[in-house]
């Protein structure tokens, strides 16, 4: 039986992010770029997978409230969710970056992965006491 870390409902179907597939990619010394919830990150940690977690956000001057692609309710939810993630889940975030466009986001994420991939593994569920 496959274990899933997250589900996405798209076009009337559920699509899952499978733990086995993530492990295959990791075993090939590659990285997954996933768009997952904070609960999925906790599930990954429970399975001894400690991801580099990057919160991408727009600068306050360019927030989603000025974007015409979303209705008012969607704009409110996007901003609220970003604020909640930053405030209450900062313990699972590796980095927070402000991006103005897709290219900035991609370049920033690639840079962070290159820098952080050699860091020691940090487990957000474990308290480390100084010796």
From TrEMBL:
<dbReference type="InterPro" id="IPR008144">
    <property type="entry name" value="Guanylate_kin-like_dom"/>
</dbReference>
<dbReference type="GO" id="GO:0005923">
    <property type="term" value="C:bicellular tight junction"/>
</dbReference>
<dbReference type="GO" id="GO:0005886">
    <property type="term" value="C:plasma membrane"/>
</dbReference>
<dbReference type="Pfam" id="PF00625">
    <property type="entry name" value="Guanylate_kin"/>
</dbReference>
<dbReference type="GO" id="GO:0098609">
    <property type="term" value="P:cell-cell adhesion"/>
</dbReference>
<dbReference type="InterPro" id="IPR027417">
    <property type="entry name" value="P-loop_NTPase"/>
</dbReference>
<dbReference type="GO" id="GO:0050839">
    <property type="term" value="F:cell adhesion molecule binding"/>
</dbReference>
<protein>
    <submittedName>
        <fullName>Disks large homolog 1 (Trinotate prediction)</fullName>
    </submittedName>
</protein>
<dbReference type="GO" id="GO:0150105">
    <property type="term" value="P:protein localization to cell-cell junction"/>
</dbReference>
<dbReference type="InterPro" id="IPR008145">
    <property type="entry name" value="GK/Ca_channel_bsu"/>
</dbReference>
<feature type="domain" description="Guanylate kinase-like">
    <location>
        <begin position="1"/>
        <end position="114"/>
    </location>
</feature>
<dbReference type="GO" id="GO:0045216">
    <property type="term" value="P:cell-cell junction organization"/>
</dbReference>
């Amino acid at each position: 039986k496959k274990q899933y870390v997250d589900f996405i409902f798209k076009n009337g179907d559920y699509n899952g992010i499978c733990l086995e597939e993530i492990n295959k990619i990791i075993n090939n010394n590659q990285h997954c770029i996933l768009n997952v919830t904070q609960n999925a990150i906790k599930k990954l940690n429970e399975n001894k997978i400690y991801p580099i977690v990057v919160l991408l956000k727009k600068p306050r001057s360019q927030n989603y409230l000025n974007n015409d692609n979303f209705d008012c309710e969607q704009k409110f939810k996007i901003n609220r969710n970003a604020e909640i993630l930053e405030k209450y889940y900062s313990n699972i975030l590796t980095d927070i970056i402000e991006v103005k466009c897709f290219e900035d986001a991609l370049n920033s994420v690639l840079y962070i992965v290159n820098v952080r991939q050699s860091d020691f593994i940090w487990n957000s569920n474990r308290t480390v006491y100084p010796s």
